[in-house]
């Protein structure tokens, strides 16, 4: 695979791991904006020609360089995974994000018209299915399956069915209690407000459950919410109240990795948005296809396997970091 480099813009953003009070900020800026990094990049992008146009400080411990690339170059995703880049990050305690923008202008604002997010452990801090398990005292059994699924050790759909079977009998109104305890991730409101202010279509697509995804859609003002639908069973001899059957509603699609990718691509097509102007964020192995399909896909505080395989990854403390990545100002949490 190759990419056309005619006027391609490469945005490289450096996040020092010791933010925000790094005593070594000047050294970090020198590394990001000096000659060392372009010299490291040039052989990785050969035979394309790389030109550094500008470098700026975006906030404490955050720096950004803007390059132009002329000619064709190897698969951009491979750049982040190259051993020399990993060694640079480890040596200098930085995380480096590479964003290739075809035929871009020289504005520092990253063109984005569609943003698609995972829900659990991304826009919210919890894994909802684990919270459901907690309500009936089977947290350990369900969490173990969740961890294996998010690390890609078992297929997501298989893990979902296994966990749901354990949740048979949970009260159907459990969602109202969860809405009181689930917490929105730090910086999520800032990030969504920033995107909405730019006119970006915002979406949550979750391997979790529709009642919580719909609630989050209202809380954050998202345009779309997609998630799994559960069957609710009436009272019976075993459970004297309306309860979860432990099964998915067959009238709705199951939100597997392929479906997450489908949501991103179909919404982009529906709204005449090029994939190069889409943005995706998630933390689990079931997000990888979506992250790879997006113009800019970022694994956020992701599971180990996802950190290794995602196009880009970032391990900050607030989703506001992604505002910086898209060219906006650094922002406090709302």
Could you please describe the fold and organization of this structure?
By secondary structure, this protein is an alpha/beta fold. The chain is built from 15 helices and 14 strands. It has helices spanning 25-33, 36-45, 76-80, 83-92, 119-123, 128-135, 139-150, 156-166, 174-181, 188-197, 210-220, 257-270, 288-293, 304-309, 321-325; strands at residues 2-3, 8-16, 49-59, 62-70, 73-74, 94-101, 114-117, 201-209, 224-228, 230-233, 243-248, 278-282, 296-300, 312-314. The protein has a six-stranded parallel β-sheet with strand order 9-8-7-12-13-14, with helices on both faces. A four-stranded antiparallel β-sheet has the order 3-4-2-6. Helix 11 links the parallel strand 8 and strand 9. Helix 6 packs antiparallel against helix 7 (139-150) and helix 7 (139-150) packs antiparallel against helix 8. The longest helix has 14 residues, at 257-270. The radius of gyration is 21 Å and the shape is elongated. 42% of the residues are buried. Mean pLDDT is 89; it is low at 1-5.
Strand order of the largest sheet: 9-8-7-12-13-14
Number of strands: 14
From the alpha carbons, calculate the radius of gyration and give it in angstroms: 21 Å
Termini separation: 41 Å
Q: What is the 3D shape?
A: elongated
The amount of helix comes to 25-40%
Give unreliable regions as ranges. Answer: 1-5
Proportion of strand residues: 15-25%
Say what oligomer this is.
single chain
Tally of helical segments: 15
Tell me about the biggest sheet? 6 strands, parallel
Q: On the 0-100 scale, what is the average pLDDT?
A: 89
**Helix vs. strand class:** alpha/beta
């Amino acid at each position: 695979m190759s990419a056309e480099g005619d006027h391609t813009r490469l945005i490289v953003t450096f996040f020092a791991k010791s933010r925000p009070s790094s005593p070594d900020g000047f050294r970090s800026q020198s590394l990001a904006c000096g000659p060392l990094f372009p010299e490291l990049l040039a052989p990785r992008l050969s035979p394309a020609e790389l030109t550094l146009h500008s470098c700026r400080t975006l906030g404490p411990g955050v720096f950004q360089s803007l390059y132009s690339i002329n000619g064709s170059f190897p698969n951009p995703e491979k750049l982040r995974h190259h051993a020399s880049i990993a060694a640079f990050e480890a040596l200098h305690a930085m995380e480096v994000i590479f964003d290739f923008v075809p035929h871009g202008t020289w504005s520092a604002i990253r063109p984005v018209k569609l943003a698609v997010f995972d829900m659990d452990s991304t826009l919210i801090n919890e894994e909802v299915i684990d919270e459901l398990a907690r309500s009936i005292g089977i947290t350990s059994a369900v969490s173990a399956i969740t961890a294996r699924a998010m690390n890609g050790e078992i297929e997501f759909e298989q893990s979902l069915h296994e966990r749901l079977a354990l949740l048979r009998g949970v009260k159907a109104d459990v969602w109202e209690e969860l809405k009181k305890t689930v917490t929105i991730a730090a910086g999520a409101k800032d990030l969504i407000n920033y995107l909405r202010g730019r006119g970006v279509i915002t979406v949550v697509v979750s391997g979790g459950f529709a009642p919580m995804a719909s609630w989050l859609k209202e809380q954050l003002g998202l345009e779309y919410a997609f998630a799994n639908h559960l069957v609710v069973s009436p009272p019976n001899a075993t459970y004297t109240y309306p309860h979860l059957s432990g099964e998915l509603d067959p009238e709705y699609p199951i939100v597997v990795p392929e479906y997450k990718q489908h949501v991103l691509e179909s919404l982009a097509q529906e709204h005449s948005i090029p994939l190069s102007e889409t943005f995706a964020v998630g933390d689990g192995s079931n997000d990888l296809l979506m992250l790879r399909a997006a113009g800019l896909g970022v694994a956020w505080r992701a599971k180990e396997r996802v950190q290794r395989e995602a196009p880009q990854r970032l391990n900050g403390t607030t989703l506001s970091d992604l505002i910086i990545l898209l060219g906006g100002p650094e922002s406090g949490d709302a």
